[in-house]
């Protein structure tokens, strides 16, 4: 059973400019982290019980870079909490969801994450997040 929304991911071209813009909405910057394996730099801002994740490509040959090229800046993914990512993935696959990640991968701040393909969620990339214990 997936929990409440953990964060929304927004693809941006200029991370610093985007952070400044979202701070004007009253959101506080929590942290910035690089994920070289995925080719992205992310900034997490606190927004009450959830967060906004701004993400920008580190290089041109990444999925986020291709997303920006094709669709421009904007909503990139929706992330839900889960308490047990491995069993959640198995259950969702059994229900017909197409998994981008067959196994959890490292996420921000020690979390473990996995993505579901937008094809199986009406056009929205879904991320599942399991926070560290
Ligand atoms: Co995310």
Radius of gyration: 14 Å
Structural class: alpha+beta
Number of helices: 3
Classify the beta-strand content into a percent band.
35-45%
What is the mean predicted local confidence, pLDDT?
A: 95
Instruction: Tell me the series of helices and strands, N- to C-terminal.
Output: EHEEEHEHEEE
Unreliable residue stretches: none
Strand order of the largest sheet: 2-3-4-1-5-8-7-6
The tally of strands reads 8
Bound molecules: cobalt (II) ion
Coarse morphology: globular
Helix content: 10-25%
Quaternary structure state of the chains depicted:
single chain
Termini distance? 18 Å
Main sheet specs: 8 strands, mixed
Folded structure, characterized:
26% of the residues are buried. It contains three helices and eight strands; from the N terminus they run βαβββαβαβββ. It is α+β, with helices and mostly antiparallel strands. Bound molecules: cobalt (II) ion.
Which properties best describe this structure?
alpha+beta; 3 helices; 133 residues; binds cobalt (II) ion; single chain; 8-stranded mixed β-sheet
Task: Sum this structure up briefly.
This protein is an alpha+beta fold and 133 residues long.
Helix/strand layout:
Layout: E1 5-11, H1 15-23, E2 28-35, E3 40-47, E4 50-57, H2 63-71, E5 74-81, H3 85-94, E6 105-106, E7 112-116, E8 125-130
Bound molecules: cobalt (II) ion.
